User: Fold Imidazole glycerol phosphate synthase subunit HisH from Pseudomonas brassicae.
Amino acid sequence: MSNVVTVIDYGVGNLFSVQKALEHCGATVRLVSDPQALKHASKVLLPGVGAFADAMRQLSANGMDEAIKAYAASGAPLFGICLGMQMLLDSSDEFGHCEGLGLIAGTVEAIPAQDHAGAALKVPHIGWSSLVYPQARSAWEGTLLESIDPRNSAVYFVHSYMAVPRAAEHRIADCQYGDTAIAAVVARDNVCGAQFHPEKSGKVGLSMLSRFVASK
Assistant:
C-alpha cells in the first residue's frame, strides 16, 4: 500500500502523537522494532527525543542502525524527526563524541549559549520559530516544504543541539535563533530530516507529513 508509513519504535520518542498526525494525513502506520521489517517498507519515519548517544545505543542493540542504512541505500523515502533527524548525520558531540548513521555528511553541535555580541541565548530552544531559506537556497520546490509560504511558516522546536550539514545543498530550511542560523530541515536524495516536531506544528507540520505520506 502506497500510504503505509513504517515508524521505527526503539523506545525513544512520543510515538502516539506522531502516529496520530500521520493517520490524520492519510497514512496507515506500522510501528516496528524488528530490523527485518524495514526490508518490506516503502516509507520509513525515524522519531526521537532525548540524548543522541542513548538513542544510537538503542538503535544498534538489535541491528536497527544497519537496517536503516540498508533501507536508505534502496532509495526509498526516509524521514527523521527531531533527534531522529540529528542521527542522520555523521556524529554528535553531545556528552562526548558519538557516531551517527552517516546518511547526511555533518555533525551535531550544541546551540551557542550566547550571540555574537555576547548576549545570552536561552538554551534549550523551545517554542515557535519561522522557517527561512538558507543562504544557498531561494525556493523549496521538490522538497517536503514545497507548498509552505515562508511568511507563514512557524513550527515548534524543542532542542539543545543542532545539526550542521557539511554541504550547503543539504540544508533545506533554517530558523533564526538570535544571530545563529539553525538547520531546521536537511535532506540528501531520499533522506530528509526536520529538527522541529511536525506533529506539533499545526498546518505547516501536517503539510510536510502529508507530502511524505504521498511521496514515491
Summary: The helical segments are 15-24, 52-61, 64-73, 83-86, 202-214. The chain has one domain: 4-214.
